[in-house]
């Protein structure tokens, strides 16, 4: 293989590495919620958004939609995910609106501990994973939002077929902005999938390699012409 052919082959290989990355977001929002409590002032417009912008990590964001007429305190967050064997140690960067953290982690259950933190009566199907956050009662204020990262297996692909259901166990429900004394066991099984494509640029080192090889090629041609 001559020098020119080698240069073209390497450039082509590097060019193919500059592909297209698909960043997926799966969202659960109104009107997909099934409310355990029929009171209108106790039906929060929750919004759950999950993305895989970082390879091998799912970023979860749970909040109350800006247009919600009700508010509440999140006590438990549950989800069904087609990736088995995950533990609490796979969770990082957890934050909540009150600064409170995770106080329990459960798998294959409808319960998130004592004090009525469960989805009994709302579903008989166990959730794959459940996080209990904060504590019963709202002495530290209402947890109206939370976020965290979850390490998943290298082969996991986020979609509406791999993240199929979420649940929120809430307390201190009532009309916004102050809430009240209600509680609910809300479930959403209507995920919406959004896919964005982003070009992956060549790394700087690759461009330097191509420039150096191009310069050597020019020098070689000049030498032949001399």
In short:
By secondary structure, the chain is an alpha+beta fold. The chain is built from 2 helices and 12 strands; from the N terminus they run H-E-E-E-E-E-E-E-E-E-E-E-E-H.
List its traits.
226 residues; alpha+beta; six-stranded antiparallel beta sheet; 12 strands; 41% strand; globular
What does this structure look like?
- The chain is of the alpha+beta class and 226 residues long.
- 16% of the residues lie in helices and 41% in strands.
- The chain is built from two helices and twelve strands, in the order αββββββββββββα.
- The strands form two sheets. A six-stranded antiparallel β-sheet has the order 6-9-4-3-1-12, with no helix packed on it. Strands 2-11-10-5-8-7 form a six-stranded antiparallel β-sheet, with no helix packed on it.
- Helix 1 (3-17) runs antiparallel to helix 2 (204-225).
- The longest helix has 22 residues, at 204-225.
- It is globular and about 80 Å long.
- Mean pLDDT is 84; it is low at 13-17.
């Amino acid at each position: 293989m001559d020098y020119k052919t080698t240069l073209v082959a390497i450039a082509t290989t590097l060019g193919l590495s500059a592909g297209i990355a698909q960043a997926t977001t799966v969202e659960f929002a109104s009107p997909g919620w099934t409310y355990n409590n029929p009171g209108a002032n106790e039906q929060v417009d929750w919004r759950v958004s999950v993305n895989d912008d970082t390879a091998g990590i799912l970023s979860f964001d749970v909040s109350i939609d800006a247009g919600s007429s009700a508010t509440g305190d999140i006590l438990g967050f549950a989800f069904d995910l087609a990736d088995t064997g995950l533990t609490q140690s796979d969770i990082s960067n957890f934050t909540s609106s009150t600064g409170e953290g995770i106080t329990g982690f459960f798998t294959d259950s409808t319960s998130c501990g004592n004090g009525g933190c469960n989805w009994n009566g709302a579903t008989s199907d166990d959730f794959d994973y459940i996080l209990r956050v904060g504590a019963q009662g709202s002495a530290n204020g209402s947890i109206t939002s939370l976020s965290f990262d979850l390490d998943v297996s290298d082969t996991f692909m986020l979609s509406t077929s791999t993240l199929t259901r979420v649940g929120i166990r809430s307390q201190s429900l009532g009309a916004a902005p102050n809430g009240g004394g209600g509680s609910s066991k809300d479930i959403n099984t209507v995920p919406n999938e959004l896919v964005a494509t982003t070009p992956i640029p060549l790394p700087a080192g690759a461009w330097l390699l191509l420039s150096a090889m191009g310069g050597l090629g020019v020098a070689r041609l000049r030498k032949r012409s001399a």
